[in-house]
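Intended use. Records such as the Polyketide cyclase entry shown here are meant for training and evaluating sequence-to-structure methods. They are not intended to support clinical decisions.
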Amino acid sequence: MTSTPTGRRVTIDGLDSIAFDRTFRAGLEDVWAAVTESDRLARWIGEWTGDPSTGSVDFRMLYEGDEHQAEVFTIQECQAPSRLVLTSQVPGEETVWHMTLTLAEHEGTTTLTFTQSVGDDPAMAGGVGPGWDYYLDRLVAAETGGDPASVDFSDYHPVHTQHYLNMFS
């Protein structure tokens, strides 16, 4: 399968970011659960541990090899079930990623808009863009009865790297 890059450049809180939209024939609460509940996240991206009421959780990607270190996700804002603002950072690394998830429902269809900053280095867009297209397509597969494992990362990276680099050049 050949994928198509879907991200667009946006500025959020003064940060260069990439935004992605995915639409689901599902209610707002169901899509919210798919992007916030650890067992649902584990089907397509990773899992978190900890207590979100403390303001942060440890998140570990499950589909990037066993060596992937857990990141600390700090909850900056949570307006369930429609808006979640997070920062993430791998312990010991300087880069802080800023992410926003916004959900809106209209007549039984929910649109998820996901954004992530590209950090201080616009070249990061070459990995951020294809990576999120890949993971969000895995989410769509998981939530529509498909097999997330059928989504092949090589259809996204490095195929779409230049597309995303060009957004910030």
